[in-house]
Specification:
This protein has 173 residues and is an alpha+beta fold. The chain has one domain (2-166): Cyclic Phosphodiesterase, Chain: A (Alpha-Beta Complex). The protein has 4 helices and 8 strands, in the order βαβαββαβαβββ. It has helices spanning 13-23, 49-61, 91-105, 126-135, and strands at 2-8, 35-43, 66-75, 82-89, 117-122, 140-145, 147-154, 158-166. The strands form 2 sheets. A 4-stranded antiparallel β-sheet has the order 2-1-7-8. A 4-stranded antiparallel β-sheet has the order 5-4-3-6, sandwiched between helices. α2 packs antiparallel against α3 (91-105). The chain is globular, with a radius of gyration of 16 Å. The chain starts with a strand and ends in a 7-residue tail after the last strand.
């Protein structure tokens, strides 16, 4: 079973960004909800799911809700053909949450430092990436993060949220 843990981008922005991603020619929009990744995809034994969910719930409760502000675009080019929406507010909180979640799911040591973002174009030609970056450069939104979601990858439909875990503590322990 392939799982992932993320901060969902709420409506109306989540679906709006997903539609924009589709409009740039990125078929990833068909099976990936708009999100900020906390733990990259990881294969687990389905028998571990309930235990993992309990651990994620406990971890989430250690973190206080916080505000995220998204604004403008960035890119990982030339390292990776990705255009993303920049997280302007909520970076330290997202990073602390990611460290805790990655510890819980026993994620491998990441190749790159944690950089919270919302992907809006991936593995497209350079012109399409340029269009995505320019088109969304003035995008802005804010939302409260009061939960994280556990996703499971399904062959027919892609990434689906299966469980949400409420934040609620007074900070990272």
């Amino acid at each position: 079973m392939l799982i992932g843990v993320s901060i969902p981008v709420p409506e109306p922005w989540g679906e709006w960004l997903r539609e924009k991603r589709r409009s740039f020619g990125d078929s990833g929009a068909d099976h990936i909800p708009s999100h900020i990744t906390l733990a990259p995809p990881l294969e687990i034994d389905p028998a571990q799911l309930d235990s993992l969910a309990e651990d994620l719930s406990s971890e989430a409760l250690k973190h206080s809700p916080f505000k995220v502000a998204l604004a403008g675009t960035g890119t990982f080019r030339p390292v990776s053909d990705v255009v993303y929406i920049v997280v302007r507010q909520g970076v330290p909180e997202s990073a602390a949450l990611a460290r805790g979640v990655q510890r819980v799911v026993q994620s491998p040591v990441p190749e790159h430092d944690f950089h919270p973002h919302v992907t809006v174009a991936h593995d497209l030609d350079q012109d399409a990436l340029d269009v995505a970056a320019a088109d969304l450069d003035d995008f802005e939104c804010e939302f409260d993060v009061d939960e994280i979601e556990l996703y499971v990858h399904k062959d027919d439909s892609g990434w689906e949220p299966i469980r949400a875990f409420a934040l609620g503590g007074s900070g990272e322990s």
